Amino acid sequence: MKAEDDEIFCPRYHRAIELIGKRWNGVILRAMLAGRTRFSAIRQEVPSLSDTMLAERLKELEAEGIVVRKVSSAPPVRVSYTLTEKGRALQAVVEAVSEWADDWIPPAAEQRPREPSASL
Amino acid sequence: MKAEDDEIFCPRYHRAIELIGKRWNGVILRAMLAGRTRFSAIRQEVPSLSDTMLAERLKELEAEGIVVRKVSSAPPVRVSYTLTEKGRALQAVVEAVSEWADDWIPPAAEQRPREPSASL
User: Fold this and answer.
1) Chain A: residue nearest B93 by CA?
2) pLDDT above 90 covers what percent of chain A?
3) Do A105 and B8 touch (CB under 8 A)?
4) Of the residues A23, A52, A70, A81, which has the maximum number of CB atoms within 10 A of its CB?
5) Is B31 close to A9, i.e. CB distance below 8 A?
């Protein structure tokens, strides 16, 4: 990244970072980069992600040219989702974020159990 | 990133990607990594970002330990915002996203003017 005044704001960067960081997209992309191609397999990797939300996000990622939806030609009908070259190129971003998270986000955040509601 | 089943979902990664990708955060961080430390200087780098929204985001980033707000001890009072070590460590993420955007987000997206509404 250059520090010159006229190069700081980049609409393409802006669009990219908010697309990747949009709710659920980052974890969906990580599951797909790890090889998940079936709807149920992707959903299983992401706690709290509903079918509806996953379907919506996959459609958006398809519209962005990041994901391709394939339907098998012969029965039984099988739908799979794979990353395009554009999608696979996000591996470097996912790795950079993973490294930053490993270094800077405390593990406690993932280990703290939900507190049960107090009953009087 | 490992592809083993039990390693795909990482709450720390999840938190990191959505924090960085939250609306405006990516562009604010890029402006700060490029050396902007004054409120007005940061805002100037981001078209359409309001004072209110920038103030809110800076507070959130401060709460996350990514930004430090400093007020000069002597008059005139000057407020500056700088990145912590945790914040500066995001350079690698911003660079990875910038490279992906350069490769995959068409420049047309930033150059296409709004179409004037057709008048009959």
Assistant:
1) A96
2) 72
3) no
4) A81
5) yes
Determine the Cα–Cα distance for residues A30 and A23; give it in Å rounded to an integer.
Answer: 13
State whether B8 and A31 contact (CB < 8 Å). Answer: yes
- The tens digit of pLDDT for each residue in A21-33 reads 999 999 999 999 9
Inter-helix orientation angle A11-21/B91-104, to 10°? 110
Count of CB contacts below 8 A, A vs B? 167
Selecting from A17, A26, A102 the residue whose C-beta is nearest the C-beta of B26 gives A17
Instruction: List the beta strands (DSSP E) in chain B.
Output: 67-71, 79-83
Band (A76; pLDDT cuts 50, 70, 90):
confident
